[in-house]
Fold BTB domain-containing protein.
Amino acid sequence: MGKRTSYFDASASTPRNRHERFYLPDGNVIFQAEGTLFKVHRYFFLQGSKVFEDMFSLPSPPGEDYEGGSDDQPIYLEGTTSLDLARFLTVFYPRTVCKPDLETTGEWASVLALAVKWQFEDVQALAVARLSADAPLVDQILLARAHRLPEWLYDAHVRICSRYEPLSLDEGRRLGVDETVVISDVRQYNIRCNRGNVDHDKLRAALRLLQQG
């Protein structure tokens, strides 16, 4: 019988170290990100993610340890850094229930990227909510576009087009010429013709034009 195929490639040659915080004595699945091992509870991954639900449903060949059952046979998370995985795990294992471990845009962006990649819908919604509340609007636009989250993308555009301050030079550089021109045009129209309120028809038309370009 052939070796069981997983959604993630195994990497036996990479040196491994146990993560100082997220190698839990009572964990029951072991992941490897880069050269770091994480031992956590598969419950969170089985219940929260269709990707992991499908992966855990694959049977192990008779006589072989199941993938993720030991340090010698972890589930290797290809393309995932140990830092990003540690940030993601803080959602399930916060140090306290009163204050999130993560505070910066970069930290929540790490969580969002893995939530989208692994189809954790609840974690994705949490990350979007935190980023919508705290991240700069330009970051929100870039993240929403990168992860193809149209509702968030539109909401961020509404807010940046209706704010009092125009785009800064740095914001314009990050967004690019086309996006800067579109946002500036919608903002000027709002000020001149719509009493500062966003014209949603004009904004939607402008965003469709951006997508076509």
User: Anything to note?
Assistant: Residues 1-7 have pLDDT under 50 and may be disordered. Residues 177-193 form the longest helix (17 residues).
